[in-house]
């Protein structure tokens, strides 16, 4: 567990360790992708989301990582991966590794309306959907009960 204070100092070893941990975390989702290529673009996409790019879109992420823009678009529009398995894995990770006596779990899959009609992959996007799963354990409830509320 990391505790950050106002005066956090990180060196290159700390940053390298964060990258290693990030890659290890993403590998936990490898079984959600149909093949190695999909896993590769998943990692590029996730790194793009975590980057400091001012716009988090396929073109910006692809150009930043040095891959063809169409490949990133194809990743979102056509590559096969199991969305349900990914969601379930993430929920299990959160329930197992972050459960505690006073934990509150909130899984929010809020989507947003695509505004463009010409965006590649837009036909595969979800519109106006949201689902919340909330569990706020009281002082007498156990971690096992908290885990059972998150699939």
How many distinct domains?
2
Helix fraction, binned, reads: 40-55%
Low-pLDDT segments, ≥5 res: 124-151
What's the pLDDT, averaged over the residues? 75
Question: Which sheet architecture does the biggest sheet show?
Answer: 2 strands, antiparallel
What would you call the shape?
globular
Distance, first to last CA: 24 Å
Output the structural class. Answer: mainly alpha
User: Which series of helices and strands comes N to C?
Assistant: HHHHHEEH
Computed CA radius of gyration, to the nearest angstrom: 18 Å
Q: Treating each run of at least 4 consecutive H or I residues as one helix, how many helices?
A: 6
Instruction: Strand order, main sheet: write it out.
Output: 1-2
Strand content: 5-15%
Compute the number of strand runs. 2
What descriptors fit this protein?
disordered C terminus; mainly alpha; 151 residues; 2 domains; 6 helices
């Amino acid at each position: 567990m990391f505790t950050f204070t106002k005066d956090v100092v990180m060196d290159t070893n700390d940053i390298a360790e964060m990258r290693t941990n990030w890659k290890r975390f993403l590998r936990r989702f490898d079984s959600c992708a149909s093949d190695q290529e999909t896993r590769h673009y998943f990692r590029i996409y996730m790194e793009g989301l975590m980057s400091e790019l001012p716009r988090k879109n396929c073109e910006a992420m692809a150009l930043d990582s040095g891959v063809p823009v169409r490949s990133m678009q194809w990743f979102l529009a056509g590559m096969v991966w199991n969305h349900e398995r990914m969601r379930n894995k993430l929920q299990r990770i959160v329930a197992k590794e972050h459960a505690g006596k006073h934990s509150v779990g909130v899984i929010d899959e809020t989507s947003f309306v695509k505004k463009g009609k010409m965006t590649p992959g837009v036909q595969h996007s979800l519109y106006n959907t949201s689902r919340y799963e909330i569990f706020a354990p009281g002082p007498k409830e156990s971690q096992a009960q908290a885990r059972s509320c998150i699939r």
